[in-house]
Description:
Elements: H1 29-37, E1 44-45, E2 51-52, E3 54-58, H2 86-98, E4 103-107, H3 117-124, H4 126-130, E5 135-140, H5 145-154, E6 159-163, H6 169-176, H7 181-193, E7 197-204, H8 208-222, E8 226-231, H9 249-256, E9 262-264, E10 274-278, E11 284-288, E12 301-304, E13 309-311, E14 320-321, H10 323-326, H11 330-342
Parallel strand pairs: 3-4, 3-12, 4-5, 5-6, 6-7, 7-8, 8-11
Antiparallel strand pairs: 1-2, 9-10, 10-11, 12-13, 13-14
Helix pairs in contact: 2-3, 5-7
Amino acid sequence: MLDNTNSSGCGENAGPSDLNTIKTVRISASSTSKRKARYPLTPLVDGFGRTVSYLRLSVTDRCDLRCTYCMAEKMSFLPRRDLLSLEELARLSDIFIRRGVRKLRITGGEPLVRRDVMDLFRDVSRHLRSGVLDELTLTTNGTLLAHHADCLAACGIKRINVSLDTLNPDRYRSMTRLGDIRMVLAGLDAAQDAGLKVKLNAVASRGAFEDEVDELIRFAHGRGMGLTLIEEMPLGDTGLDRNDSVLSLRVLQSDLARRWTLTPLTRSSGGPARYVRVAETGGQLGFISPMSCNFCALCNRVRVSCTGRLYTCMGDEGSVDLRARLRRSEDEVSSAIRSALLTKPERHRFDISQMSKPAVARHMSALGG
């Protein structure tokens, strides 16, 4: 049974001693012992020989913001009855982990709006303690982070990504349509106080962002946080023409190089980002360029929606239903995953010259980008 704590998981005033008294998602002991005995299983490999070791698991399509590049101002979200339960999300996580996934990122929508989501973090965190999972993390908009930071750290999470596209309160309100930047700043404070390493993600856009990006760099690096810039992607109909906002990171990086000393780094986070060191700040700056620089050759990830659909590529409509199979047998899920990987596209379908209409109908909030 899941507990009935409020959406802050541990409770706003919970301390370390309280964590032991909070219920977690339950999996039978006999089932767990069988699973341990079956480690390790054959790794997941797609039709192009790429090994899949990274799962991005969405727990909700809902969000407390309406960012202009992500969704329409008036969104229709899934009925809650259509979502996988937290127990089912935990079981799916187990299946992927036993088949070679070493990194698991919880996403949304905004994952922290999901009621009792901390139960899922606590359950999956046992794989960190056993050593079969290298990292458990999440991407969040930060508005609820102040309530959850201590619980996340207690679950063994070491680092998180926080989306923040501007430091200007008025522009933040305008871009998010609902947001109060003070909540995000409080969340950043709480996360760092809890010992979490924070990386900021910012979607680059033409116009005001180009004038503010230097301030974002100084802010992030001044607080010991990394910053990754991301090109806008044609996911879902937002009601706006992305031709008016999309900014090539090749262009932006060239512009930044006129003001900053950027030294390429060889490090990789296992994802699509390219990194540079900013000499003037000593911090790291990342670039994720799906539109201007294809990065699919080294893709190591798949995504599962909150309804249990497996997407082998963010930039492709193809998906496979795992929910019905999960409710029948684990073997059916494993078979479906392996079959889906054989049809994983070689690359995404995004094209920077075709930004006036979505490349896929699915909004970014369905899978968390």
